[in-house]
Amino acid sequence: MTRSLALLTMLAACGSDPAPGGADAAPAADAAPVAAAEEINCPATVAADVGVAAGQYDPSAVTVAPGEVVRFTTSVEHSARAVDATLFDIPFGVTACVRFNQVGTYGFYCTAHGFTGTVTVAE
Q: By the 8 A CB rule, do 16 and 43 touch?
């Protein structure tokens, strides 16, 4: 009986010891995903400026590196909304900045008139 009790005690103790990296180990925290683009407060210096002139964006296409900022200046008659509206939606008559974090081409358009522009993010 003493031998059985000793064996049970050993098994119970082993079963509660977490193995390094094993099933009992705490899961590692995943890093938060980085948004492809995000509206931010405008810094003093930006990589590109996009405005509106004569019913079109001026310029209508800009290229920036990952992490750089584009400043959009809309008018009371024009806006700038990303084709994927979850990225940015700049209303009429404001100045707003967007940081582009991931390589790709991001289209945007005026919600009132439909003219378009693009931001290309390239390494």
A: no
According to the 3-state scheme, what is the secondary structure of 85-99?
Answer: CCCCEECCCCEEEEE
> What confidence tens digit (pLDDT) does each residue in 74-96 have?
999 999 999 999 999 999 999 99
Neighbours of 55 (CB within 10 A): 10
Contact 97, 31 (CB under 8 A): no
Residue 16 CB partners (closer than 8 Å, separation 6+): none
Smallest CA-to-CA distance from 73 within 100, 93, 48, 47 is with: 93
- Which among 86, 74, 66, 83 is positioned nearest to 49, based on CA atoms? 74
The pTM of the full predicted model, rounded to 2 decimals, is 0.74
CA torsion sign for 55, 60, 66, 69 is: negative
3-class secondary structure, 103: coil
Which letter does DSSP use for residue 118 in this model? Answer: E
